[in-house]
Amino acid sequence: MSPHTRQRRRSALIGLAVLALGPGLAGPAAATSPPAGTPSGVTAASPAAGTWTEVGSDRADPLTESQGLASVEVPAGSPNRYTGIGTIPLGLGIRGWNHVGDPDASYGGHYIEPYQRDDGNTKMFRVQAPDGRWSEYVHTLSPGEARNNSWSAVSPDGQWMLAGEWGTMTRLLVFPTPGVNPATSPSANLPQVATVRLDRAVRDVQGCDFLDATTLLCSSDDPEGTLFGITKPLLRVDLSAAPNGTADITGHVTALRQLPLRSACSGDFETEGVDYDRRTGTLRVIVVSPGFCVLTDSRTYRFTQG
Fold first, then answer.
1. Residue 37: its pLDDT value, please?
2. N or C: which end of the chain has fewer CB within 10 A?
3. Is 280 exposed, middle or buried (0-12, 13-18, 19+ CB in 10 A)?
4. What pLDDT, in 10s, does the model give residues 97-140?
5. What is the DSSP string of 11-76?
6. Which of 294, 285, 296, 286 is nearest to 267 (CA)?
7. Which residue positions in the chain have pLDDT lower than 50?
8. Backbone angles phi, psi at 207, to 5 degrees
9. Residue 306's pLDDT is what?
10. Residue 35, preceding bond cis, omega within 30 degrees?
11. From CA 133, how far away is CA 63, in angstroms rounded?
């Protein structure tokens, strides 16, 4: 299912659930229960090196925290940022930018949201500078590039941004970081400058973030489990070199664990964005619950390494 179709269906479900429950009744569920085990037909993979252990969770609001999240270091004391169907500005929606993905922030404080639309041959990155000003950087699709704009991840040096497409893919896209890299301008096309060639296919990656200059952590919404032996995996991508915008690099993909799938409802979970906060060493991933429990027990899970 494309993210456009899934987004429309989930938006309709949220609206119906709000009407059914009434205002003020969409609080946290009284209790959640773990799944009975690995989904039918799937053999669980052994945890890989660099295990991430769940240490807690918080309720994820289905309107404003259902797509992605980012920790912002500059200005000091900035709150964590989230995206969801309720965070898309009205003006952008009217202009056709109807889906926002998992955002990221540079270590210098530029905050970047990835947008996509149902038509045309462009995708857009909306950037807020540390002084609060917003700018839009539009990318014209390269030959063969999917229209989906699921996530953005800024390299630790701030100069390069990775982004991803939906579906089963063997690559990640590399751009100069809009608003940070001096080669970018809101009045010019944001070009794809390189590619990360993956040694294994990945499916439905919803978010990635840099752990360090050559390591990515990614959340996959893979519903099939045929690629790594588990559905909804947390992935690690070890890069052959830090992105530099001048040459393609390779990425070695490893599945670390299945992300938590716990809800009072049964059905299809949806894993969303991921964020690594280097200040605390905390990894956070959003998992949206099935059915009407999207309102009550969708969670942002917290992990630490070790």
1. 37
2. C
3. exposed
4. 999 999 999 999 999 999 999 999 999 999 999 999 999 999 99
5. HHHHHHHHHHH-TT-----S-----SSSPTT-PPPPPPSS-EEEEEEEE--TTTSSSEEE---SST
6. 294
7. 1-3, 7, 12, 15-16, 18-47
8. -170, 150
9. 84
10. no
11. 24
Q: Which fold has domain 3-305?
A: Neuraminidase (2.120.10)
Q: What is the pLDDT of residue 206?
A: 98
Tens-place pLDDT, residues 225-244: 999 999 999 999 999 999 99
Sorted by sequence, the CB contacts under 8 Å of residue 223 that are 6+ apart come out as 204, 231, 232, 268
- The pLDDT score that the predictor gives to residue 132 is 96
Structure tokens at 236: 């690690």
Mean pLDDT of the chain: 89
Residue 1, both tokens: 């299912």
Q: Tokens 């000003």 appear where?
A: 133
Backbone angles phi, psi at 9, to 5 degrees: -65, -40
Q: Extract the tokens encoding 228.
A: 């790594």
